[in-house]
Amino acid sequence: MHDIDLPLPNIYFASVTSAVTGETLHLHVAADFVGAALSKVGNLCADQHGFRPYRSNAVIKLRRLKLLDYVQNPEALGAAISNATLLGERETVARLAHRPRQVNALLNDLGSGPDKVDTEAVARALGEALRLAS
What we know:
By secondary structure, the protein is of the alpha+beta class.
């Protein structure tokens, strides 16, 4: 279950550490590939935090969320939707609105086993994150 991918767009967890101030920012962005995610992280940092991260002034680390990440951190969906809204990405927001059903379907397909998860609790948490982001 740890390594199961979800349909596009991917949600990436970004950690940006400024080499100048040492401040670390944590963001969730939705993108179809890593290059687009890096661009979105740069735009959000420039718009919201007053600096544009480059190799010379920051360290950017990206991690793509897998199925288990949604179970452990359902708030990531809401954060990614909020950031997509800030960036004016209506199509991405609409595609992410289907993510709770996609996660629930994958969890139900896994059935019972050593990684058994309370799918109803996950669905409620993702739905709440989606509601708060709207």
